[in-house]
């Protein structure tokens, strides 16, 4: 089984999000970057599969050299090698085309991603790449088991799940439940230093969208406290003041 | 030129997010012009399709037949993209439900259009085509300029309000032409709840580690039931399998924006707040007056959930009895 896992490099979840004074750029100073949490799930599942059935896991990141520590962490978790497409991502279309360009004809049986990146929340990479490569894409996949070239997958739907059977090659985007993310051990960290990280150049792609500015949500006013024994009052406030019930 | 809206239905009923998307499309149409066309895949029934006119669909394109009985990640986007081409749609709106998110990007790729997910505002068309979307998992918004000729938009459920129009929708049969590559085969659909789904719910009752254990969720479910609310939980609660993963809200779970979010025994960690802070009204019940969640709440009760929740339940019942 030859597996490709696409990873995104995102601010740690504890990060307080701030922007420059023009609100055009995210302030990265002092920010710790990590593998996108959903991608950790995808990567862990890929490693589990190759541990059981044999094969290799390659991680792929589209981004600049500043992401190399994150890629090394993926190698420490157990990926066999890595590819970095050396370019600052412009939009999702750009990244999807880089991924399909690397993957096309390279013989991957399975391509795994995260359901969404926690910075851009694009929620689209798996389906975009699936379309570019003309293979099925299972989005928001909560469970994936392989038997030869046939996989059984659970896809999240409103109020439940859909079970499907799909043949390799296909793409899935990982959601919680697919695996419990692993923490790299000392041996993994040591061996990650010498695993191959191949840097390739980007292909030219049109830009379809651009972020022009950011904003942060308005804070709330002072909280209105209600006495613990006066829940009637709370219900009344929700009805007459907040008008939500 | 037109605005195409993908409609989602199950058991002969369209989702609320579909009607919201139609309302949104009507508002876009008043900015850019264009006829609002609904795309129906599968067979919800004539009566259900008439409902689409109620929210402004002037035309319904109906692709009927067995190939749409179950979702397919290749067939669905091919059909919707063909419909968009046939109607010369400049804007395609696909509600950002789990299924919608799963194939909307493929529709976009087929049309060489940008897909923008997580949209919370109408487009600003004064100078280009600018939309506001959720970013950093609810910690921020990004304003995105969509440069492609055709635009595919994923509108967040509950972020745009329903507007009734009562148009008589003309239903036209659509036969698909594109041939497809391989697809997955759906073998089973498992319903875990009949309640309204979390992203679409207007009211949500959520609980955290303060509930001590899964055996204490009875009162949470009863409160939700009385209010007609969906239930949610914090991450450690689903990690411990007290509740299913599908209820986990937050930065690494589901993002929601209900009218009312009641958080019980949840401390209000930054990752939790990220996914719920766009709720219109937030109520926090926590025994610790210093819990960070009180700083992000509209109403709060400092007290023990095991005493406050049963009391609140009685108050809600009393209110319902008085107000029908
Ligand atoms: C990478 C990463 C991603 C994360 N993503 C998410 C996410 O998406 N969503 C999420 O929720 N968390 C997330 N977390 C976890 C988050 O940091 C917090 O640990 C979590 O939200 C805490 O859950 P909690 O509030 O239920 O539990 P706790 O923090 O343990 O809080 C329990 C609260 O209950 C109160 N309490 C206790 N007993 C009672 C009682 N009898 N009556 C009333 N109140 C009581 C306590 O005062 C306390 O405030 C993430 C963490 C990491 C590292
Ligand atoms: N720059 C990138 N390089 C490689 N993979 C990426 C990149 N950005 C996003 N992805 C993958 O696409 C998934 C979904 O991202 P998004 O569509 O941005 O929400 C992520 O979880 C990653 O697996």
Characterise the protein shown here.
The complex is a heterodimer of chains A (245) and B (324). By secondary structure, chain A is α/β, with parallel strands linked by helices. Chain A has a single domain, classed as HUPs (Rossmann fold). Chain A has six helices and 13 strands. Chain A has a nine-stranded mixed sheet with strand order 9-8-7-10-6-1-4-5-11, sandwiched between helices. In chain A, helix 2 crosses helix 5. The termini of chain A are far apart. In chain B, the strands form four sheets. In chain B, strands 7-10-6-1-4-5-11 form a seven-stranded parallel sheet, sandwiched between helices. In chain B, helix 2 links the parallel strand 4 and strand 5. In chain B, helix 3 crosses helix 4 and helix 5 packs parallel to helix 8. At the A-B interface, helix 3, helix 4, strand 7, strand 8 and strand 9 of A face helix 4, strand 7, strand 8, strand 9 and strand 12 of B. Strand 13 of chain A pairs parallel with strand 17 of chain B, so a sheet runs across the interface. Adenosine monophosphate binds next to helix 1, strand 4, helix 3 and strand 6 of chain A.
Query: What is the number of helices of chain A?
Result: 6
Q: Decide which structural class fits the backbone of chain A.
A: alpha/beta
Helix content of chain A: 25-40%
Return Rg of chain B in Å: 21 Å
The whole-angstrom Rg of chain A is 21 Å
Helix content of chain B: 25-40%
CATH superfamily of chain A: HUPs
Distance between the termini of chain A: 54 Å
Domain unit count of chain B: 2
Query: What CATH architecture of chain A do you see?
Result: 3-Layer(aba) Sandwich
Quaternary state of this entry equals: heterodimer
Q: Which fold name is given in CATH as the topology of the largest domain in chain B?
A: Rossmann fold
Low-confidence stretches of chain B are none
* Tally of separate helices of chain B: 8
The largest pleated sheet of chain A is described as: 9 strands, mixed
């Amino acid at each position: 089984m030859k597996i490709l896992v696409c990873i995104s490099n995102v601010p740690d979840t504890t990060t307080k999000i701030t922007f420059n004074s023009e609100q055009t750029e995210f302030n990265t100073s002092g920010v710790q970057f990590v593998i996108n949490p959903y991608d950790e799930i995808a990567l862990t599942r890929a490693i589990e599969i190759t541990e059981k059935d044999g094969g290799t896991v390659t991680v792929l990141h589209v981004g600049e050299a500043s992401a190399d520590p994150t890629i090394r962490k993926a190698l420490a978790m157990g990926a066999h090698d890595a590819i970095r497409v050396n370019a600052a991502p412009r939009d999702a279309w750009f990244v999807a085309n880089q991924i399909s360009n690397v993957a096309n004809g390279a013989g991957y049986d399975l391509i795994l991603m995260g359901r969404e990146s926690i910075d851009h929340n694009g929620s689209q990479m798996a389906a975009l790449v699936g379309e570019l490569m003309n293979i099925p894409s299972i989005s928001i996949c909560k469970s994936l088991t392989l038997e030869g070239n046939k996989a059984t997958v659970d896809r999240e739907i409103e109020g439940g799940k859909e079970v499907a059977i799909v043949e390799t090659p296909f793409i899935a985007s990982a959601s919680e439940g697919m695996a419990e993310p692993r923490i790299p051990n000392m041996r993994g960290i040591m061996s990650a230093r010498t695993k191959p990280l191949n840097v390739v150049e980007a292909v030219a792609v049109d830009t379809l969208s651009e972020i022009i500015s950011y904003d942060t949500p308005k804070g709330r006013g002072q909280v209105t406290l209600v006495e613990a024994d006066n829940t009637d009052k709370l219900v009344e406030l929700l009805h007459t003041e907040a008008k939500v019930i | 030129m037109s605005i195409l809206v993908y409609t989602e239905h199950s058991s002969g009923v369209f989702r609320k997010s579909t009607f919201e998307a139609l309302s949104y499309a009507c508002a876009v149409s008043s900015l850019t012009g264009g006829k609002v066309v609904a795309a129906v895949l599968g067979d919800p029934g004539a009566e259900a399709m008439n409902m689409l006119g109620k929210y402004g669909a002037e035309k319904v394109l109906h692709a009927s037949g067995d190939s749409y009985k179950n979702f397919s990640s290749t067939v669905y986007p091919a059909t919707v993209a063909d419909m968009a081409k046939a109607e010369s749609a400049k804007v395609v709106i696909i509600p950002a439900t789990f299924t919608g998110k799963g194939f909307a990007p493929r529709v976009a790729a087929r049309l060489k259009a940008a897909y923008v997910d997580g949209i919370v505002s109408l487009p600003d068309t004064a100078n280009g085509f600018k939309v506001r979307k959720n970013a950093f998992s609810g910690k921020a918004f990004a304003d995105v300029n969509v440069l492609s000729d055709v635009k595919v938009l994923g509108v967040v459920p509950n972020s745009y309000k329903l507007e009734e129009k009562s148009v008589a929708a003309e239903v036209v049969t659509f036969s698909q032409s594109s041939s497809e590559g391989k697809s997955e085969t759906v073998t089973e659909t498992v319903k875990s709840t009949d309640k309204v789904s979390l992203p679409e719910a207007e009211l949500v009752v959520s609980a955290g580690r303060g509930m001590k254990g899964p055996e204490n969720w009875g009162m949470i479910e009863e409160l939700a039931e009385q209010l007609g609310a969906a239930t949610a939980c914090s991450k450690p609660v689903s990690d411990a399998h007290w509740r299913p993963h599908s209820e986990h809200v937050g930065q690494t779970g589901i993002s929601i924006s209900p009218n009312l979010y009641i958080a019980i025994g949840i401390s209000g960690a930054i990752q939790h707040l990220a996914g719920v802070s766009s709720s219109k009204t937030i109520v926090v019940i926590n025994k610790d007056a210093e819990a960070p969640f009180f700083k992000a709440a509209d109403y709060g009760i400092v007290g023990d959930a095991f005493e406050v929740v049963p009391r609140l339940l009685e108050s809600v019942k009393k209110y319902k009895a008085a107000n029908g």
